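Figure 2 data, in text form.
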Amino acid sequence: MIAAWMLWSAGIGVLFLVAGLAAERLLTVYGHPTRWVWIVAGAATTALSVLRIPGGAPEQAAPPPGYVPPLLEPLAVTVARDSLLRSFDDLLVLGWVVLSSLLVVTVLFAFARLVREGRSWQPGSLGHRTVLWSRDTGPTIVGLLRPRVVLPAWVRAVGHREQELILAHEEEHIRAGDARLRFLMTLPLFVFPWNPALWLQRHRLNLAVELDCDRRVMHRLPGHRHAYGNLLLRVGAGRNGLHRLALVSLSEGRSQLERRIRGLVERMPRARRIQAALLLLGAAAIVTLAVLFPRIRGEDASAPDELVELMAEPTPTPYTVRPDLVNEREVMQALQAEYPPELRDTGIAGTVNVHFFIDTEGVVQRVLVAGTSGHEELDSAALRVARVFRFTPALDMDEIVPVWIAIPITFTTRDAASADTAPVPEELRQVIDSIFRGQVDDPGDLPADLPEELAEIANRILRERAADPGDRPADSDVPQEASLADAPTFTPYTVRPDLVNEREVQRALEREYPPILKDAGIGGTTNVHFFIDTEGVVQRALVAQASGHEALDEAALRVARVFRFTPALNEDEVVPVWIAIPITFQTR
């Protein structure tokens, strides 16, 4: 991936180099400065390379409803995981670090050499300008914030006209801020020393800076063209050292010196309109191509697209550790705030089953109504409340995964809640009293006309007393809990019951998964209502929402019996509660 990105960055740089040459030619024929062409080219090459550095975090933005992910991204080239280019990544990163380090060390040595040389420079003056006199360094300027002119000793011996030209050249460099421009153009080389286009762009900047300076000097002293050319030849014969990296000097390499002298003696060509138009259009076309150049991405960069597809609609998402709610109090407050007043005041309650899509950060990215309450206002309020939920991330083995889960959101009035926990029918109370007095010890002793649902409650109490006669609930407690377990209802709590045997539940999921459905790759989610007593034991499990396969629903109820919880609390009191948990069967 690194190799592909490096090739991409070099290609972008070459395109900007070609565009810069066309723009430079256009500005030259009109006699305009050309340095800014290479500043822009270098900045654009660096900026695009930085923006496309591989390995950034994928975006997690939620798409709007109805969003359809694109099937084709024409301006992207995907590098496969097994591509040969990926095999060079580690070696290239190492080489990258080594090159950058060597360049930094080289510049530091050059700077240290310049500082050491600078100790021998003597302050003085030439004409109206304060200068530093050296033995053989210069003519040049040193310093970024406060540039100063450095002149070699031989300048003292030249004529007044040559001295004036030398000072004019260095003063033009200072006035134009050329030292700072060249320094800024050098910075990207420390970061991307492997990009040849940046080196070539900096080389062209150096030439453009000197050519622009020569033009300004000749405009300032138009009658000295021949003498200025001779001066360039004399200075160009001087030696160049490593410390030249830190200087803006009158002297340049032989090829650049030839170009500068040619610029002095040649007349500026006339620009034809067609030629200018072609150069302008060519530069613009190349810049457009560089900006739209296909970007490099790896196969793993498709993760955001996969996430968008997963968010499109509820689908079975396997996980071994469920996402846990972390802001119960905030949710309870939202339930109270969002309950439509007109429904609450008239005592209308209801439960909305809501699908939640939870990302790898535990943030709810999308909510949908899975089962309506029958009241549109309650459904809308439930979706607003659902946006308040915050979870811990779900895990599939050791991997954090995005998941769909279903949670029932219930709106109920306090009067309705009280009605749900009203005393048991008198008929059942008499039977329970007989059981606790020892008058009824066998199911056959129950009244024959006792309704079936009440007989079931009485039978359960008899079985519990037979299983553990020393641990029997108090007479005053049994009726209320028996009634509460009769059917799912609103049970307020401030501390939820937490699952304490996740591994056992996972084994039960694998064990109870119907083999026929598993082999056929058929999965599904059953939303199950759990009634959990004050000991954290599941006393009853009911299907709240079917999976669409009866065998899966039956298996989910068997798995539900394996669940064990910590007791729920309402303030400081241990209370029995109803909760709903989705149980998902999914093939690997």
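Caption note: The first strand starts at residue 76 and ends at 79.
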